[in-house]
Amino acid sequence: MTKAATVLIVDDHRAVREELAFALQFDGWTTVEAEDGPGGLERAQEPDVDLVLLDVKLPGMDGLEVLQKLKEQRPDLPVVMISGHGDLDTAVLAVRRGAYDFLQKPFESDRVLLSIKNALRTCRLQSENEALREVIQSEHHLLGTSDTIEAVRSTIQKVAPTEVAVLITGDNGTGKELVARQLHLQSKRSEGPFLAVNCAAIPEDLAESELFGHEKGAFTGADNARAGAFELADGGTLFLDEVGDMPLPMQAKLLRALQERVVQRLGAQATTEVDVRILAATNQDLEAMVSEKAFREDLYYRLHVVRIHLPPLRERPDDVAALADHFLAAATKRNGLSSRRLHTSAYEWLRRQPWPGNVRQLKNALEGAAVLSDGPELRAADLEGAATPAATRRAADGEPDWFAYARLEDFRAATEKEFLRRKLLEFGGNIKKTAENIELQRSNLYKKLDRYDLK
């Protein structure tokens, strides 16, 4: 059963305290009382006090002074000021000092109850938001002790508080979005939104609408007006993932938005000012693309003020153990499993692997092993079974053992996955080129990559 909130009433008039206590107790609240400022400060230190109703005019120490001391001692404790001599200046001063609301006597009980409920609800939401922020920060913590990762952390700390654009480079699965989120969380915009947009996953004919929005009737199917990514990220951070896959015509429009800090919805006559910090990421060589006229040079320099490069996991084996411990603990908690730990043989096996899928592949391997294992300790054999899909196991001649599959459906899926994997390798992970070569729409290719975990 939920505990009733306790309200401390601080007023030098006994009749007022009794009136408020009666109304609050009738509505289910618990009340405690104090008749002056020092008494109120003392009672407010009791941990069960959830809110204070504080009179402005008190003998000796007035209510505004008590409010200031309360905010120093218990900054998260909501305070509602009450006064029989209230004026606008006093109310403004009280709110500036941290009061949630200001009520003038004589007041109606319903008005008092509503103010208390709103104050407690706001306080609860703030606490939940802070707890959620701590969870998000822990989930998006950049793990590792290698010199490379330490250098990345150092760069993030220097760059995050600024407004400069950052280009994050590295292979798929190295954690580029993780770096982007750290840059946001450590920035002055951390209270604002963080919006990630995968440029390669947006159909070319919808790219402008996705980024800048559209008005109703702007095109077939635009049944309602819709804000784009720039407007939705206003006041925060917009992360453009796979920016190298953005079509050239869209690159020019993106450049204009970055230069002028305004966007124009499709079908709209007016422009909208936006305040957005841009972070971009790619697994492609943008400099080479600039040379090949596949990426605008002016946009490249606009995005590349500071560069943060994430090396593949195989180049930082010293980080594997810390990452594995973290992913295993998270997997057991997420799946409601009993505690698991890694055997020495597991650590040795993990360090020897090339991890072509990088950190993402390692995370999936640990989660699969945690779910499939029977005991509390994971050995190398447990990880090998989870990390090595049947499609990559080898027969005696070194080729994939395709006949290890019992069903035709599994065989078809395995061969399609291997085909896509080899094509991705052939084209250096370039989604656009791979899709064009195998004559498959990019959106369909992305669906298959998600299905086979080939991101």
Q: How confident is the prediction overall: mean pLDDT? A: 85
Based on CA inertia axes, which overall geometry fits? globular
What helical percentage do the residues reach? 40-55%
The profile of the biggest β sheet is: 5 strands, parallel
Count helical runs.
19
Our estimate of the beta-strand percent is 5-15%
Detail the poorly predicted runs: 390-398
* Beta-strand segment tally: 16
User: What class would the helix/strand composition place it in?
Assistant: alpha/beta
Radius of gyration: 29 Å
Calculate the terminal CA-CA distance, rounded to whole Å: 46 Å
User: Reading side by side through the largest sheet, how are the strands ordered?
Assistant: 2-1-3-4-5
CATH architecture of the largest domain: 3-Layer(aba) Sandwich
Instruction: Using the coordinates above, name the CATH class of the largest domain.
Output: Alpha Beta
Properties at a glance:
alpha/beta; Rossmann fold; Helicase, Ruva Protein, domain 3; 4 domains; five-stranded parallel sheet; 16 strands; 14% strand
What does this structure look like?
The protein is an alpha/beta fold. The chain has 4 domains: 6-135, Response regulator (Rossmann fold, 3-Layer(aba) Sandwich); 140-311, Rossmann fold (3-Layer(aba) Sandwich), CATH 3.40.50; 312-388, Helicase, Ruva Protein, domain 3 (Orthogonal Bundle), CATH 1.10.8.60; 394-455, Arc Repressor Mutant, subunit A. Helices cover 47% and strands 14% of the residues. It has 19 helices and 16 strands. The chain has helices at 14-26, 37-44, 63-73, 88-96, 109-139, 147-159, 176-185, 207-212, 229-232, 248-260, 286-291, 297-303, 320-334, 344-352, 358-372, 380-387, 408-426, 431-437, 442-451, and strands spanning 6-10, 30-34, 49-55, 79-83, 101-104, 166-170, 194-198, 213-214, 226-227, 237-241, 262-263, 272-273, 277-282, 306-310, 341-342, 377-378. A 5-stranded parallel β-sheet has the order 2-1-3-4-5, sandwiched between helices. The protein has a 5-stranded parallel β-sheet with strand order 7-10-13-6-14. A two-stranded antiparallel sheet has the order 8-9. Helix 2 packs parallel to helix 3 (63-73), helix 13 packs across helix 15 (358-372) and helix 14 (344-352) packs parallel to helix 16. The longest helix has 31 residues, at 109-139. It starts with 5 loop residues before the first strand and ends with a helix.
